[in-house]
Prior knowledge:
By secondary structure, this protein is an alpha+beta fold. Helices cover 45% and strands 33% of the residues. The chain has a 4-stranded antiparallel β-sheet with strand order 3-4-5-6, with helices on one face. It has a two-stranded antiparallel ribbon with strand order 1-2.
Amino acid sequence: MFTKMRNIESAFQYVRRFTMLVIVGCIIICCYTLYKSFESIGMMQDRVYILANGKALEAYSSDRKDNVIVEARDHVKTFHKLFFTLDPDDKVIKLNVTKALYLADESAKRTYDDLKENGFYASIISGNVSQTITVDSVAINIDAYPYQFKCYGKQNIIRTTSIVNRTLITEGILRNVSRSDNNPHGFLIERLTTLENRDLSVENRK
C-alpha cells in the first residue's frame, strides 16, 4: 500500500513538474511573440508608402538629426540655383527670386534689391542673357548651431557675343525654422555673403 502511495506521489510530482515546464514554456513563447509583434509594429510605423503614378513606393522616416547635413546642403543648393539661375524674362526672374527669398533672410533680399537698383536684371532682359549655376560642393559645419556653410559653384553666363564662366563662393549661416510648402527643409539662410565672383574664362561665340 505504501509502495502504491509512493508511486502515486512520484507520478503526481512528475505531472506537476511537467505542467510547470509547459506553463513556463508557454509564458516564454507568449512574451517573445508580444516582443516581436511590438517590434514589427514599430518598424512598420517608421515606413511611409507614397503613391506615385499608380505605384506604391516605400520610404523610411527618420529623426531630423540623422539628415541635418543632407537637408542643409540641399537647402543651400536649392537657394543658389533659384537665386542665380536667370533668363531674359522678367516673370521667370521674379518667380525664381521669390522662391529663393523664402529660403533666406533680409541679407539675400538686400543683395536682390542692390542688383535690381543697379540695373542688373534689366540688363539681363535687354541683353538676352542667360545665366546658370552649377553647385560643386557645400561645406556645412554642424558642430555648432547655427550651422555655418560655404558654397562653391560656377556660373555660366551666355551672352549674344560670348560665354563667360565664373567662379562663385558664398558663405552664411543656417538656422532652424518651421517647415512649409515654401521652405520644405525648415532652414533659413542668414548673413549671406559673396566671397568670390570672378571670371574663369571667356569664349567668343561665332
